[in-house]
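Take a specimen:
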Amino acid sequence: MLRCAKQLLVLMFLCFSVVAIAQRDDRKQKLERQKIRLQDEIELANKILLETRNTKKLSLSNVETVEQKLRLRQNLINTLDRETEMLSRESLKLQKEIDTLEAQVANLKEDYAEMIRQARKSSDNYSRLMFILSSRDFNQALRRLEYLKQYSEYRRRQVEEIKQKENDLSDKLVELNRQKIKKEVLKAQMEDERNKLIAERNEQQQAIASLSEKESEITKELTEKQVQAKKLENEIQRIIAAEIKKAKEAAVRRGIEDEAKRVGLVFGKDFTNRTTNRALNDLIDKKKAELKAANKPVAAKPSAPASSFSLTPEATKLAAGFAANKSLLPWPVERGLVVQGFGPYRHPIAKSVVMNNNGIDIATEKGSKARVAFDGEVSKVIRVPGGAITIIVSHGNYFTIYQNLAEVYVKSGDKVTAKQELGLVYTDPTEGKTILHFELWKETQMLDPQPWLAGK
């Protein structure tokens, strides 16, 4: 029983060790992936800034992109710091293992040296023979002979164990040295990133100071943009409301037609798509009266689930699929940086102006294509005279909106699939910025799109 308990404890310890090692390796890989992603996004930010700076004009988009780059840089420094801390903990643990191994090797060598000294005292064959011959009986002689064999085997195992421990010690020392080198590299990289962060912050402050001189001009420009944005928002709301109304009307029609079929009316014979709802209800009432007069039963009416947005079975499936993919939806551009998040924010230059973002603004490279986040149908392509193009795509009772396009590759009514290209993102020729405005609505409610998008 005691033996089983010991075996169980050993097994539990081994399982715990394996899980702990797996978790540590997973944390290391996660930090490494995060570091690579942040470095890639900083590289993209530099590329976007280079494109905007080629216009020789300092703009708000530069400030927003640099602000995002500063956040990315700080996150990279934090990631490097966590990686360094993890490496320090691992090095400390490794040093303890090395100290333990060194002590074990020293003890084994001391024990082995003592064995050798004792063996030399009785190393001649005569002493061994006398040790066996001096036995009381034959059984004792056999036991003594077995003892000598086991002693010899024990010495051999001691030599092997010393060699194994020394090999383990050598491996640990190599690993410790590798970790020390990596730690120094990380520290140097972190110092370099901190210096870059300081330089970029100084540059950002100078840019903000320069733009602040034009605060009144910027405030006026922002006010005009807010008016334009509100007009577009109202148009989007009108289109979505029309979609909801159309869906409800279609649901009412499906209900009436289902009721007609339930009482025995035949589509194409008794009624068609051209039959109005009122006329069809009259036919239903007439048919019910006939059935009642003939004393014939009518099939029970199935209960319909209550919903604020009546969907077809296909649209219901589409909406469920969209909802199930929260945090997994592909980004609406292949590479991009969120330079302005969802919701209200105070403008960095015109401090008195509070802006409200109905979606997220994604800075991307010149020539980038907007792509649809999920399977759906193009509800509307909105063309503003003298302005950029907006596309609304429905996914059941969810809608995604792609704003600030220069050209489009789809039209209203087109079925689209996830990652399909919708159009070319507009590049401002004056400022050189390429920004896609992306929104997400559930019926008439605006949602923050960022939590719905997949992690990079």
